[in-house]
Amino acid sequence: MGATLFLWMSLTPSLLPRDWMFQGLIGGISAAIGHGIGIVVAAAARRWLAPRLAFWPPSTLVQTRIRLGIYTICAVGTVLMLVAAVRWQSQIADYMGTVPPTVLGYSRTIVLSAVIGLVILATARGLRDESRWVAGLLIRRWRFPRRAAVAVGVVVVALVTYLFVAGIGVRVGYAALNWAFSAQNDTTRDGAVRPTLPEKSGSPASKASWESLGFEGRNFVSGGVRASELSRLTGRPAKEPIRVYAGLETADDTDARMRVIVDELERTGAFDRKTLVVIPTTGTGWVNPTAAQTMELVADGDSALVAAQYSYLPSWLSFVADRQAAADAGRALVTAVHDRWLTKPAEHRPKLFVYGESLGTQAGEGAFDGLAEIRDTVDGVLWVGPPNSNPLWRSLTDRRDPGTPETEPTYADGLVVRFANDAEGITRNPREWLSPRVLYIQHPSDPVVWWSTDLLFSEPDWLAERTADDASAMRWYPIVTFWQVSADLGNAAGVPDGHGHNYGTQILDGWVAVTNPDGWTAADTQRIRNALNELRGHDGPEK
Fold first, then answer.
1. Taking a C-beta distance cutoff of 8 angstroms, is the pair 224, 193 a contact?
2. What are the transmembrane regions (predicted)?
3. Is residue 437 in a domain?
4. What is the dihedral of CA 305, 311, 314, 318, to 10 degrees?
5. CA-to-CA distance for 81 and 89, rounded, in angstroms?
6. Domain of 310, in residue numbers
7. Could you give the angle at the alpha carbon of 278 between the alpha carbons of 506 and 181, nearest 5°?
8. Is the pTM of this model over 0.70?
9. What is the number of domains present in the chain?
């Protein structure tokens, strides 16, 4: 009954559409957890409740009928819940513009849930048998009291398992993953070619060799649009954009890579441009090509973008394995660029901005001790899709103005920091917005923003609010909701623009709001949006 109840709850909708494989995964995990809770409840009932019931145990015939009734309810209820799950998933899919599932196709989730649940159950019973073996050994050899031996057996097996998983298992796994992804770092995306323009790192004039930039670095510097194409798209004169990058193999350590970065900025004339944008990256050093194109189009190429790689691992692995590395890398990059920027005459310095997306927002936040330092250091910040664990984001959200929702909070009347779910939300607040401006863009359906271990045992405000957004049909269930949102992470960027972790050209609206270009109009924004849609795919993969 516990397993089936938790399976039913896992079939309810969450933030994003789930295919049968993701649903089977969380269904199996949830069912195994429900089974374990059921065992605990049953053991407690047998020990403390059953002896006090005069009618218990009933006859064998009554027990058989009860079991048959329970099995029937579980089976029929599961079929009905599966049909309801398909309807819920179809509603979310229609809302987000994805392909809805069918009942027949989605029925595979029950089979996969059963397999995963049985594997977890077998593993748990294997550990239980090990603890019993240890307890038996203590009783036979050292005459331990039975209860003490059982307790010690459980503790010993739990400790050994933890040490293996958290120690040897994690270290070996981390080393293996690092090796695997470092091999990919040596490859180059089809279509990425070494730049010849001196404005790009990796070019013949660059101090950062093409080979050292890594997979994402080569994508970044080989992309972009030439000045002539920028002029065609915007209808205004344009300069050749500058893109500066350092990979993990560009220099031996962080300090040396930052020296290369600063030298590249000097060599390319980045400090003579109109805008200079520091982009703390996601794990592997990925820079969103739509964001990079946006910055160059808005500035008519009179811009310099600078980024650096700090890991071989993709964002989700970096987030799990070493979040501090992101913060340290962000601080090193922003500090190095800012220190050199300060040496330039104030009247000739470019506007200095920071952009971050996903784990890149955590790297960006790590560069500052708080909001005051941000305002003293840069001319504006745009952060897109921030993880729930970001310290500054968490602090600002927790201290939001009373009565404002967690999905789109207002902090201090939006005087400096603002939050928006979409393009309309960026300009919704009519009050004055002081410079430097800080803007967070976050979708109500983005699991990267809302995933937290707190989901295990407490209902978050963003879900309790349940306004008319992507998550309106979602409900919170202890333990189960955590696994649902965890599964949503796997499809976070696999949905159309405007949903999940896919922000598309909303980055343009955010960038215009933060940089606040002189004389900018709605027509300018639409012209750049049209250009971005035309360029989609020109600058490499979106993720």
1. no
2. 20-45, 66-86, 106-127, 148-170
3. no
4. -120
5. 12
6. 194-399+511-535
7. 85
8. yes
9. 1
500-522 b/e (C-beta count within 10 Å ≥ 16 → b) = bbbbbbbbbbbbbbbbeeeeeee
pLDDT of residue 326: 84
User: What CA–CA distances, in Å, run from 344 to 145, 268, 271, 278, 394?
Assistant: 77, 15, 8, 17, 35
* Residue 437, H or E segment: strand 437-441
Residue 299 within any structural domain of the chain = yes
- Of 252, 281, 280, 247, the C-alpha closest to 264 is 247
Q: How many angstroms separate the CA atoms of 239 and 149, rounded?
A: 76
Residue 379 domain flag: yes
Alpha helices in 143-253 (DSSP H): 146-163, 170-185, 214-222, 227-234
Please state, in angstroms and rounded to a whole number, the distance separating the CA atoms of residues 460 and 520.
Answer: 39
Determine if residue 378 is left, alpha or beta; phi over 0 gives left, psi from -120 to 50 gives alpha, anything else beta: beta
At 467 the pLDDT is: 57
The CATH number for 298's domain is: 3.40.50
The burial of 47, by beta-carbon neighbours within 10 Å (0-12 exposed, 13-18 middle, 19 or more buried), is given as exposed
Tell me what pLDDT residue 9 has: 97
pLDDT score of 164: 82
Distance of alpha carbon 154 from alpha carbon 141, whole angstroms: 18
**On the CB side of 81, how many CA atoms lie within 13 Å of its CA?**
20
Place of tokens 């064998």: 60
Residues near 372 by beta carbon (within 8 Å), at least 6 away in sequence: none
CA separation, residue 335 to residues 2, 147, 284, 330, 465 (Å) = 53, 59, 21, 8, 39
- Which residues are within 8 A (CB) of 292 and not within 5 positions of it... i.e. 6 or more apart? 220, 223, 224, 243, 279, 305, 539
**In this structure, what token pair is assigned to residue 454?**
């707190």
- For 224, the 3-state DSSP assignment is coil
Give the strand order in the sheet containing 351-357: 242-246, 303-308, 275-278, 351-357, 380-384, 437-441, 417-420
Residue 306: which H helix or E strand, with range? strand 303-308
| Cβ count within 10 A of residue 118 | 14
Give domain status of residue 267, yes or no.
Answer: yes
Tokens found for residue 344:
């330039």
Average pLDDT, 10 consecutive residues per value, the chain (543 residues): 97 94 96 96 93 89 95 97 95 92 94 97 96 95 92 94 77 70 83 95 96 95 93 94 96 96 98 97 90 97 96 69 80 97 95 95 93 96 96 96 95 97 93 96 95 95 72 85 93 91 96 96 95 74 37
Find out whether 102 and 82 touch, Cβ atoms under 8 Å. Answer: no
H-type helices in 227-286, by residue range? 227-234, 254-268
Cβ(332)–Cβ(326) below 8 Å:
no
